[in-house]
Amino acid sequence: MDLAGRTVIVTGASGGIGVPLCAALLTAGAHVLAVGRDEARLRRLAQQLPAGRLSWAVGDVATEEGRARVLDAAHAARPTPSVLVLAHAQAAFGLFEDQSPEEMARLMQTNLVAPMLLVHGLLPVLRMHAMSSVVVVGSTFGSLAFPGFAAYSASKFGLRGLTEALAREYADTSLRFQYLSPRATRTPFNTPAVDALNAELKVASDAPAEVARQLIAAITQGTSRLQLGWPEKLFARLNGLVPGLVDRNLRASLPIVRRHARRSRPSAVETLRHEPQSR
Predict the structure, then answer these.
(1) What pLDDT is attached to residue 264?
(2) What value does the mean pLDDT take over residues 212-218?
(3) Residue 29: CB atoms within 10 Å
(4) What is the pTM of this model?
(5) Alpha carbon distance 127, 175 (integer Å)
(6) For residue 7, which of 23, 19, 25, 27 has the smallest C-alpha distance?
(7) Cα–Cα distance measured from residue 44 to residue 244, given in angstroms and rounded to the nearest whole number
(8) pLDDT at position 231 over 60
(9) Are the CB atoms for 86 and 135 separated by under 8 Å?
(10) CA-CA-CA-CA dihedral for 144, 224, 133, 87, to nearest 10
(11) Which end of the chain has fewer CB within 10 Å, C or N?
């Protein structure tokens, strides 16, 4: 897909990957409709990028009102959007028994329900175009569930399932669905406790600009599924083929995970919304 001249909606646009992703889309010739909850951050984003090529819509997509604002902005855009990039998320690191029901419900609403309803609402706009795409910025945890991230993994597994099902449901149309998964990325989405855990487990991480570059390449090439990073790509495949092997490997890491999760308290769940998860 040639992005030149297209309007692309990006949720989580002012997040750690969102900013370089918007810049890369503009470099590719697209117009960007940036979506986020914080108007001041969206204004700063617009000031950093070429004038006249980026507009924004302020709203929390986890709410009906926020999604309505995005839909209104999409209908008003010229040209109307032909690409939707879902790059927002709510993070959660902590032991499952320490997490509150309210926080877990909010997590699922933001990471799974909101994207599903936003895609549903934007389908008439996207299908107006001869070629269109829904791009989901996922997570390795959407293929490889990890202790300390149980609720988060559940939300990302659900999002991956939604994307795959829709890709198959619309396989005979010009609308495609892409699930693209970064690995750990050096952004504030990962809290200090998560950074410390990754350091002890020797988890590799990528620069946000490099992640954005690879995402843009996958969008233009029409890649339906992509897992960034090695050995993350290997472990995601192994988890589908021989999950027992991954079970044994992760069991050895449990004491480390529990230690860092408990150090993250008294706020047992650490959250930062609308920046893409990057593992």
Answers:
(1) 67
(2) 97
(3) 12
(4) 0.91
(5) 7
(6) 25
(7) 47
(8) yes
(9) yes
(10) 30
(11) N
pLDDT digits (tens, 9 = 90+) for 168-211: 999 999 999 999 999 988 888 888 899 899 999 999 889 999 99
- What phi, psi does 274 have (nearest 5°)? 65, 30
Task: Give residue 225's pLDDT.
Answer: 95
What per-residue confidence (pLDDT) applies to 154?
97
In percent, the amount of the chain with pLDDT more than 90 equals 81
Centre a 10 Å sphere on the Cβ of residue 70 and count the other Cβ atoms it contains: 22
- Please, what's the b/e burial string for 208-217 (b: 16 or more CB within 10 A of its CB; e: otherwise)? beebbbbbbe
Contact call for residues 54 and 22 (beta carbons, < 8 A): yes
Report CA torsion sign: 272, 138, 193, 254. positive
